[in-house]
Each structure stands twice: as C-alpha cells, then as structure tokens.
C-alpha cells in the first residue's frame, strides 16, 4: 500500500467510528428541548388567533340587528386580550428556549470539531487551506442557527395555524375559502423552480466562492511579514482580488436566476394581492346573495394567514439549505478517521 493509498483510506468515513456515531447522535440528547420549543411555539401561535376571532365576533355582534349585548362584547374583548397575552408569553418562551438550545448545540459541534481535528493526520491538514477549516469551525457551525433556533417551532406553527384557520373558514363558506387559496396555489406552483438542479449548483458554487475568499484572506494575513520584508504587495493580494471577482460573478448569476421566481412568490403571497382576491370573490358572493356581508370579515382577517406555510418555506428555504450543507461539511470533518493511538 502506497502513502497515497494510506492517506485515502484514512480519509474515508467509517460508519462505525465514534465520530460518525457521535454525529448521528448529536441532537438526540436535545430531543425533549426541541419538542418543548415546538409545543410552546404552536400554543402561542394558536392563541394568536384569539384576537382575530374576537374581532370577527365583534363585527358580527355590532352588525347584527337589535340591541347590542354589552356583556357578550366585553367577554369577547377579554378573550381576545387573553389570547394575545398567551401568545406573547409562549412565543417568548419558545424563542428563548430555542436560542439556549442553539448555543448548546453549537458548543457541542465546536468541541467535537476541536477534538476531531486534534487527532487527524498532518497530511490531511496539508491538503486543505486554513480558510476552509476556519469556515467549517466558524461560519458552518454558526449557519445551523436558523435550523436549531427558528425552524422547528416556526415551521410547525406556520402549518398548524393556517390549517386551523382553514377548517374554521370552511365552516363559514367553502366557496370563498377555495377562492382565498388561489394565492397559495400560485405560490406553490413556483416552489419546484427553487429546487432545480441549476439552483442547487449555483448555491454550491456560492459556498465554494465564500470558502475561497476566506482562504485567500487567511493566506494574505499570514504572508504580511514576508511582504514587508521582500515587497510584492500587489502579488500578495492578487489571490484575494481574484476570489472576490469570482464571488461577484457567481453571486450575480445566482441572483439573476432566483430574482424572477422570488418576485413571483412575493407578489402571490403579498397582503394586497391576497386581499384583492378575497374582496373580488366576496363581492361576487355577496352580490349574488350567497354570503352575508358580516361573513366576509373572517376571510379578510384570517385569509392572509393561509399563505404563511408557503411564505415560511420561501423565506427560510435558503437558510435551511445553507444549514443542511454546513452540517454536511461538519459531518465530513468529524468522520475523518484519526491516526491510531500507540498501544
């Protein structure tokens, strides 16, 4: 076996190694905390429907013929205020717990990376740039923040709350509910365009360009003493300028490919467009006598929330993909087989 073969064997991930097992089990000790974050966020989000439903009930009460039941009005107002308070408390608790959990997970990542890098072969370091490792330990670990602190609770709540709203709106009028879903259907039709192979390649090229910039900065800083002694400053930072120019080109190409899709989704999910669709459909039903004017109010208030799942996926799509790629790079480092310790 040659030296190259030995190095390749050392770098191959071992599924049964302690590093691989520790990576797969990294989040297992935190499952209860993850569940608590999700439950608190869902309770808070559901409680946030109370003020909207209270406004709907107040509208029906005030628009109904006959005397106003003041006791009922105050009961509705109290229920709405209580729901708002519960939303604030539970959402704050979920956010606080999520960020504490994120700090613990990032600390565990960095400790495992430090321990793993202290045992890998020297030849493994020589084939990698300093900036590449700095990016893994620094930026890649920090990139898991949205995945840990925000995504679990917010994504679940973004699906649960619109589902509850959808069920309620179906009980009011199923026809206007289907009309209110038109913006959601339009936005969902654009989601597959975000996951085309070309978009994935552009994101990978973006990550690689960022890594080259980090490496060139580290190399330039480390070579300052040589530049001071022997000159050649222009040659020293030429690598950085080249990396920066490549990044601008790659980023511009990525933005051009995403801008049309993102603009279409933003337009379909925008409140003015959603309200326009609901108002047109509601006006048609009210004119034909198929819908009471007071029943349009819940669609104006809750209809905007029906777009939340797609909006959450659209806004968090890049962050979640970046976090997934970062975790993959961290896993690759942790799974490098260390040198055998002497007996």
UniProtKB/TrEMBL annotation:
GO molecular-function terms, A-Z: ABC-type transporter activity; ATP binding; ATPase-coupled lipid transmembrane transporter activity
InterPro entries linked: ABC1_TM_dom (IPR011527), ABC1_TM_sf (IPR036640), Type_1_exporter (IPR039421)
Topological category with respect to the lipid bilayer: Multi-pass membrane protein
UniProt KW Transmembrane helix keyword: yes
Domain called ABC transmembrane type-1: residue spans: 35-322
Membrane-traversing stretches: 33-56, 76-101, 155-172, 178-196, 260-284, 296-317
Gene3D superfamilies: ABC transporter type 1, transmembrane domain
Alphabetized Pfam families for the sequence: ABC_membrane (PF00664)
Compartments in which it is found: Cell membrane
GO CC annotation, single: plasma membrane
Highest taxon of source: Bacteria
Keywords tagged on the record: ATP-binding, Membrane, Nucleotide-binding, Transmembrane, Transmembrane helix
Main location (coarse class): membrane
Protein name: ABC transporter ATP-binding protein
Protein source organism: Nonomuraea diastatica
Phylogenetic placement of the source organism: Bacteria, Bacillati, Actinomycetota, Actinomycetes, Streptosporangiales
């Amino acid at each position: 076996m040659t030296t190259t073969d030995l190095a390749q064997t050392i770098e191959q991930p071992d599924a049964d190694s302690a590093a691989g097992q520790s990576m797969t089990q990294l989040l297992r000790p935190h499952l209860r905390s993850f569940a608590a974050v999700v439950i608190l966020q869902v309770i808070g989000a559901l409680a946030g429907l109370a003020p909207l439903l209270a406004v709907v009930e107040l509208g029906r009460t005030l628009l109904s013929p006959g005397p106003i039941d003041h006791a009922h009005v105050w009961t509705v107002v109290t229920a709405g205020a209580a729901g708002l308070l519960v939303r604030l408390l539970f959402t704050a608790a979920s956010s606080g717990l999520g960020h504490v959990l994120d700090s613990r997970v990032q600390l565990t990542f960095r400790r495992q990376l430090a321990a793993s890098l202290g045992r890998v072969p020297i030849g493994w370091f020589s084939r990698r740039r300093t900036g590449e490792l700095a990016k893994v330990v620094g930026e890649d670990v920090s990139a898991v923040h949205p995945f840990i602190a925000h995504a679990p609770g917010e994504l679940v709540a973004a699906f649960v709350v619109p589902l509850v709203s959808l069920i309620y709106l179906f009980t009011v009028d199923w026809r206007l509910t289907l009309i209110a879903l038109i913006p959601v259907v339009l936005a969902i039709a654009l989601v597959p365009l975000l996951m085309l192979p070309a978009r994935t390649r552009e994101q990978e090229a973006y990550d690689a360009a960022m890594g080259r910039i980090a490496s060139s900065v580290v190399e330039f800083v480390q070579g300052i003493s040589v530049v001071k002694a022997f000159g050649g400053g222009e040659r020293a930072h030429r690598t950085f300028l080249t990396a920066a120019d490549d990044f601008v080109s790659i980023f511009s190409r990525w933005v051009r490919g995403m801008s049309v899709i993102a603009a279409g989704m933003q337009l379909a999910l925008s409140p003015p467009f959603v309200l326009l669709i609901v108002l047109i459909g509601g006006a048609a039903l009210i004119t034909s006598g198929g819908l009471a004017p007071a029943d349009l109010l819940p669609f104006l208030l809750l209809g905007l929330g029906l777009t939340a799942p797609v909006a959450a996926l659209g806004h968090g799509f890049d962050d979640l993909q970046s976090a997934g790629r970062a975790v993959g790079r961290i896993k690759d480092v942790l799974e490098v087989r260390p040198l055998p310790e002497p007996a």
